[in-house]
Amino acid sequence: MIQIQLNLPESAFSILRSTPDEFAQELLIAAVVKWYEVGIISQSKAAEITGMSRQAFLVALDRFGVSPFQSTPEELAEEVGRG
């Protein structure tokens, strides 16, 4: 595993009222949720990156208000129409 170092002011941890380790995990989850939201990665890859189960990642998506579906309603309707 590769470790990345970030330089943050100590006040950053008070935002979430967390320890540095908790803050780092939350930062990682937030980034991965965004990557999923914009279609860069899949749910399974997101779960792998965060070290979460896919079910736990779905809970994180809900917490951030991100849909677990990457297709638009129009795309889904089109796929159903083809079937």
Could you describe the 3D structure shown?
With 83 residues, this protein is mainly α. Helices cover 60% and strands 0% of the residues. It starts with 11 loop residues before the first helix and ends with a helix.
Q: What does this entry show, briefly?
A:
By secondary structure, the protein is an all-alpha fold. It is 60% helix and 0% strand. It has 5 helices and no strands.
List keywords for this structure.
mainly alpha, about 80 residues, 5 helices
The percentage of residues in β strands lies in under 5%
Query: Low-confidence spans: pLDDT under 50, at least 5 residues?
Result: none
Shape: elongated
How many structural domains?
A: 1
Q: In sequence order, what are the helices and strands, one letter per element?
A: HHHHH
Any idea what the radius of gyration is?
16 Å
Sheet/helix structural class: mainly alpha
Helix content: 55-70%
Helical segment count = 5
Averaged pLDDT = 91
Q: For the terminal residues, how far apart are their CA atoms?
A: 43 Å
Number of strands: 0
Question: Major beta sheet, specifics?
Answer: none
